[in-house]
Amino acid sequence: MNRKIAIAGYRMKAASDLVTTRERLTFELTRGLFDDLGIDRDHVGTTIFATNDFLDGRTISNVFLDPPAGVYMRDESKVEMDGLSALVYACMRILSGQYETALLVAFGLCGSQVSPYLHVEYTLNPTYDRQLGLLNELSAAGLQARSFLNKFGYSEDLLDEIAARNLRNAALNRDQARGIKDASAKDIKDSSYLYEPLRELHTYPATDGGCAVLLASETKAKELTDKPVWILGMGQSIESYYLGERNLYESRSTREASGRAYAMAGIDKPEAEVDFAEVSSLFAQQEPILTEALGLYGPGDAEKAYAGDNGIAGSLPVNPSGGPLGAHPICATGLFRLNEAIKQLRGEAGKNQVKKAEIGVVHGQDGVCAQQNTVVVLGI
Amino acid sequence: MEETRIVNATWDVSTFKYRIEGQGLTRMLSGMRDAKLIGIKCSKCGTVYLPGSFYCRKCHIEIDEAIEVGDHGEVMTYTVGYADVRGNPLEEPRVSPMVKFDGCDAWVMGALEGVKPEDVHVGMRVKVAWAEERTGSLQDMQYFIPE
Ligand SMILES: [Zn+2]
């Protein structure tokens, strides 16, 4: 990159019901972040929203979200996607040389105000997939889980292990909406099937949540914080919309995206150079699929990894925060991964802190079964 | 004074126009009237799409070679649903596989009948159960049954 870009600060909030309005949440996140950094809205060069019109109940929903974000008489743009896509966009704006800072605001209120599954149903092709009446986000994830388990000969126990570890980690993390203290694989197996092999506790919880993140050029970042976290690399990739045109047991687009991000960051051997990962795995099987696609372990090594290597205390922790099984505020989830990585890199992750945190990789996704993927490499 | 309040709201999006390509779906539907599955093959890379497409995803060229694919195929993955797509509980669990028909590259989703959920497995052979009276609609392909 022709300029260095850092994350100067963030605010995040999640619960099953935040008992708030979209405007108030936007206001509190941005006002809180500005207060943390000792700045005012005048210090923000540009703002990028990541929200979804369907979930917001209005089209072009940024028109009512801009003022509470402090954008009155200033410039703003929006991506109707996961917040990590907004981050890539915001970085480009800073790289253009026109701006020294860029504010990201992302949220989804699917815990209290709108069904999280309905918007996925409406992303389906109206003339075929929707007519079929068989496909929704959960059944698609069930197909993906079965494909993955079958490909590598794993039993459903692996999904229970993954979910138990995440919900245990999430219980230690006050920024999560759901956690289960000391969750065991049996606790997960005791939850009922939604779409076999997926059980209720293998899937993300309906979540209210959002965040605000401030990016800054090198000079500006050093003025704003003693603990800048640097963006070392970014990559994005998208695959076919139709599930039937992908191998559901893998994520080729995540592999492509991570290849681009690692190349930009100068990382040749991710499994050796990356210290931890925060991935947007909305369903238990997605964590190993994505981690493998990020090059952090080989195909078929998931069982081994969940036997030890990737816990908080392991050699390559994956979702030490508890991941999206603890909270999935749609549109903000990729930035939640970013914020959790920032905590790790700054040594501020408390009981979720991993041993070594100098290089972290974060991942965000959009579309059914992670059709589009964004990978960002962070360092201190 | 109450700080916030929930009000009920609706989107009226029940009817809208949506123009579709004749190349893929309508060709597939007209084939279904004759109990045939018609896909489209890429002239460059050979990928066979079902439902067909007017372009190849990989080569990014226009394609139009209609090709009949088998109505027998292999279960590539499946899920057993306990609720319909809107979350309403089903009386009986429903098996929905994705099937790769012989001679086709894409997997097609459908319902599988005539087999207990516990007896379904990836790799099992199935075929289309065609409707007796076919009208050239998706309903012509009623469901899949074991081969
Ligand atoms: Zn082609």
TrEMBL record, chain A:
SUPFAM superfamilies per record: Thiolase-like
Gene Ontology molecular function terms on file: acyltransferase activity
PANTHER family: ACETYL-COA C-ACETYLTRANSFERASE, ACETYL-COA C-ACYLTRANSFERASE
Protein name: Thiolase C-terminal domain-containing protein
Species: Candidatus Solincola sediminis
CDD domains in the cross-refs: SCP-x_thiolase
Residue stretches making up the Thiolase C-terminal domain: 236-376
